[in-house]
Every structure is written in structure tokens, then in C-alpha cells.
Amino acid sequence: MFKQFLHGVTGSEVYLITSLGIFLLFFILVAVMLFFMKKDHIKHMSELPLSND
Q1: How far is the CA of 23 from the CAs of 17, 18, 30, 40, in angstroms?
Q2: Which residues contact 9 (CB under 8 A, 6 or more apart)?
Q3: Average pLDDT per 10 consecutive residues for the chain, totaling 53 residues
Q4: Reduced to 3 states, what is the DSSP secondary structure of residue 14?
Q5: Fewest beta carbons within 10 Å, which of 2, 10, 51, 52?
């Protein structure tokens, strides 16, 4: 069924490649952000659910 839908849409490859690019760009940006995040901030955020404040 999905293949029939894709064959009916002209230019469907552009949509597939664009969505894959957005998906990869998002996760690469998140990985870079996590890599450069300060360790103190990570520790503070991980302890938030356990704090009583």
C-alpha cells in the first residue's frame, strides 16, 4: 500500500530525502549539544526528580 502511494505521487523522492535530512540534522544537533554541555548542568538536571525543593 505504501509503495502504491509513493508511485502515485510525483517527486516523492524529494520528500523522502528531505525528511531523512531533517531527521538526521536534528539528531546530530542534539548529539553535539549533549557533547558540549557542561557536566555540572547535566548533574543538576539528573538530580531534579530526586530533590525535595
Answers
A1: 10, 9, 11, 29
A2: 15
A3: 64 82 96 94 87 70
A4: helix
A5: 52
